[in-house]
Amino acid sequence: MSVAAYGRLKSKKRKTRMANVITFVVILIFAALVIFPIWWIFRTSLMTNAEIYRYPPSFLPGDWLFSNYEKTLEVFKFWKYLWNTMIIIVPSCLAGTFTATLCGYAFARLRFRGKQFIWALCVGSMLLPAMVTLIPLYIGWTRGLGLQDSYLPLILPYFCGGGAFNIFLIRQFIVSIPRELDQAATIDGAGYFRILFSIIIPAIRPAMIVVALFIFIGLWNDLLQQMIYINSSDKFTIALGLTNFRGQLKQDWSLTMAATCMSFAPGVIFYLIGQRYFVEGITLTGMKN
Amino acid sequence: MKASKSIGAGLLSVLLVSSVVGCGNNEKNTASSTPSSSAPSSSASSGGEASKTPEKTDTKKEKVKITYSMWGSAEEGNVTQAVADKFNASQDRIEVEVVAIPWESYMTKLNTQATGGQLPDTGMLKEDGVIQWSSEGMLNDVSAMYEGSDSKPLDSLAYKYQGKTLAYAAANEVLLLYYNKDMFDKAGVAYPPSALDKAWTWDEFVATAKKLTVDKKGKHPGEDGFDKDSIVQYGASVENLPWQLETWALSNGGGFYSADGTELRIGEDASVEAIQKVADLYLKDHVAPLSVGQTDDGIQRTIIAGTVAMATNGAWNVGTSLNTAKEEGLNYGVAVLPYMKDKVTLNTGGANVVFSQTKHPAEAMEWLKWYNSEENNWGLISSGIWMPTLEKWYTDESLTRKWVENPNFPPYDEYKSAVVDYARSSAARPAAWFYTNHTTDFNTLLGSVLGDVWTGKTTAKDAIAKNLDALKAAHSGNN
Amino acid sequence: METVSKSSRRRARIYSAEARVAYICLIPAFLGLIFLTYVPLLSVLGISLTSWTGLAKPEFIGFDNYVKLFTTDPYIKDSIIATIYFALLSVAGSMIYSLFIAMLLNRKIPARGFFRAVFYVPYVLPAAAIYVGWSWLYEANFGFFNYLLSEIGLSKVLFIADSSYVVPSLSLISVWLAGNLIVIFLAGLQNVPSVYHEAAEMDGANGWQRFLHITLPCMSPIIFYNLLMSLIANLQVVTPALALTNGGPGNSSRFMTYLMYDQAFVNYKLGYACATTFIIFAILAAFTAVLFKTSNRWIFNEGGDDK
């Protein structure tokens, strides 16, 4: 290695190190800004109700009332709500991700009659706010199928493709995978399903994790539908449990925020677990050349 | 018209039925789905419950099941269920089950249930929905409920429309003036009066508020060097939710509606002027914080936060937030509202109704009548959230003392004069939704029309004049 | 001649096998589209031609609801403007913000996993709670932001209490919430073959050139997806109005879906609400169509698309 080349490499290294330091500082600033409102919610969960409205607002709670969390747990049956929510979420996530992958594959790779039309229907369904079909669906599930106070109206839709958004997402990811990969497999005589399971699915695992994550969060926070379909308090989910702090015109914000802080932990944990798989996505693309 | 009506209904039912065809729809199930919605057996796993027909009402030994829905948390639901259990034990024909739904989603859920024919038998209904639901045929006639009974609710608490009694309020509430005693003591200003005959005029109210408004340098509005952008304590806050604004329109000799609710009076000068006076508390007098009617936590934001010396709001705040604040050291008092020309306060109260979808109206009414006697919702009354509906609690001093003399309330004499007597005085008038239809729509529109009045971008006069036709349409239900 | 027909027959056979697989894959989605979307949508269309209140029996009134919406409705015009204004601000803001953050997070920095979680957390928080949290920051008299402003001697900004500031204020929250877009961008960045970058670097391309000529084209299907998704989601915005502003002050945040919600669930005008729905639908369709039409020009499909 010549001296000049060595010097260039060294300066390049210094340059990347500089760039990384700048990146880190920028990220740190943004992260602080993003965390600030979350801190505000957390700080509120440790205050008395009078303190929340006090002026000037204080950055730190006065007494750090961790007892608010104990009080919250008396009302907010976290584990029970969590269990109930999981009964809805686990099958929905699995079925939703799987069916979305099937559909996304068909739209991205397969040729068939009526593709354009079905694709248009699919895209069209994204344009409808969920609130719009709420009432016809409610009538259908309750009057038509007699499902009152049941989780099924919340779960079953995810067995039907997991929502157009997710189908679309999977399709976009499959489209961005080099086509030569599955063409090579076709020449080797692999069937369409084998290509899907042995080539496509490993390649789009990050996207599938994202889809599962979205279904998870979507159901986790979907207050409107849960409120309408579930009546009895022993079937309450996390989202319903959270609204339960509102009594007869009365709202206990400290406890509500304590419950809020507890309730988003599972979502973050799920994300942290899923995050590991993002990194693995790279291996495939290296195969291209 | 008749033909088109049936076409519409036919089209609709075809569409609705077709939305479930192919999913194993069966008519039997539709017919048998009673609103006893939370039977413990209907768990998530047992989707196909079509075979179970809970039609046991023919056999005399079986109790009639009644579902009662209320707004509130699950705990509040449990408390009410405990009361209902007493009722269930007291006789052997009716079994009441309580369903508690959070306040914010209450009407959404009820409305959805109504479209699906899944309403409970009886329940609470928000004030502004009563007349509308009734005119759509969704409520049972309850006028016979208190026939032959010696203890009747206050007459002002009956929802009446076109000469008919539609429902009775579950509770009584009036609008009051709350104030922070420590702030008054510190400023050396006399407390607002709790007796109606000593009520402040609007000008006295504003003058006092100025003394209590302080900026960072300790200056009051009107003094040299006063800076409105660095106020640290405000003198007064008048709640400007549309329905509460009617108080001031009435007090100024105007109003929102004529006495029978048929004519609109909001365009009159007196009404417009009253609304402008409320806005000017912030804009001109600099004694009030800005509020644009986006939240309903007025008392928390003002009195409890310790940033405002006086604030108007409903009597329920005594029990929903002020009692806890009192325990934490807040020294507050209650007074009657100031007035412009006439002394006015509004009384109101959510209704207890029997839905017309029920199969057991008589039993539902029996439960309501039993439940509405104060001994049975004592928890809500003694906490200060509800005021009793029966007259005797206001007239019989021993009963009044039983009600008010407990740590949740401000001093007896004050509350007795500023709330108990006030509620029965000539100043107390029923809120518009006791006798006017379409108040929800009207209040939504009024709130939107006045949005820029509070910040001073327009005046009440211009805003209302510009939208008078739309307001009229909303009032008449043509909107 | 013979070989041509033979090969076309063979292609047809492959084609039908391929189609069979496709149809099997699409069965679940097809059921969903029919029973959960289009049949309910048809009934919404039916209801929009009636005066149904949700309570009493419906009455067929033809297109009266639509006529009323376009002639006398006091909200709809403001509502459309507010919605589009909000959507454009939020989409632009959250796209730039999330791509920028995703690219920073894709670099080798310490505690990368932690930072990724931080930017994602707002998206996981229950909507009602975050809006209440923000309302304390934005509050006009004693909120934290105004406290800061008064401490440094500036005059107050009314934020959500002022009809000219409410939409930008709400858009800022919506940008803050864009953690889902960051996640998708991150997943997409992982799929950009690193060999391209290495090759370009050999050729002496700087960071900006590499971003322009490698990252952006490779990411274009993902950018398109995020753009579409955030456009649709923001045009359907409803939660800030429900949780924070009630559509006010005035009509400045009376977004279309909120208007529809208010008509259907608060004011019992179900027929009317369904008519409003179709206006929302038309606006969304128009925006989406424009996006799709222009997409062919800038989307770079590595895998190719046989549409």
UniProtKB/TrEMBL annotation, chain A:
Q: Which residues cross the membrane?
A: 21-42, 81-105, 117-139, 151-170, 191-217, 253-273
Q: Name one Pfam family in it.
A: BPD_transp_1
Instruction: Please provide, in alphabetical order, the Gene Ontology terms of the cellular component aspect for this entry.
Output: plasma membrane
The protein's matches in CDD domains, at most eight in alphabetical order, are given as: TM_PBP2
Record's Gene3D superfamilies? MetI-like (1.10.3720.10)
Q: How does it sit in the membrane?
A: Multi-pass membrane protein
Indicate the family of this protein.
Answer: Belongs to the binding-protein-dependent transport system permease family.
Q: What is this protein called?
A: Carbohydrate ABC transporter permease
Q: State the organism named in the record.
A: Cohnella thailandensis
Automatic annotation (TrEMBL), chain B:
Signal peptide positions are 1-23
Region Disordered: start-end pairs = 25-62
Q: Where is the composition biased (Low complexity)?
A: 25-51
> Keywords, A to Z?
Signal
Source organism's superkingdom? Answer: Bacteria
Q: Pfam families given for it?
A: SBP_bac_8 (PF13416)
Which protein, by its recorded name, is this? Answer: Sugar ABC transporter substrate-binding protein
From TrEMBL, chain C:
Q: How is it placed in the membrane, per its record?
A: Multi-pass membrane protein
PROSITE patterns according to UniProt: ABC_TM1
Any one GO cellular component localisation term in the record: plasma membrane
Highest taxon above the source species: Bacteria
User: InterPro entries, alphabetically?
Assistant: ABC_transporter_permease (IPR051393), MetI-like (IPR000515), MetI-like_sf (IPR035906)
Arranged from A to Z, the UniProt key words for this protein are: Cell membrane, Membrane, Transmembrane, Transmembrane helix, Transport
Q: How is this protein named in the record?
A: Sugar ABC transporter permease
Organism of origin? Cohnella thailandensis
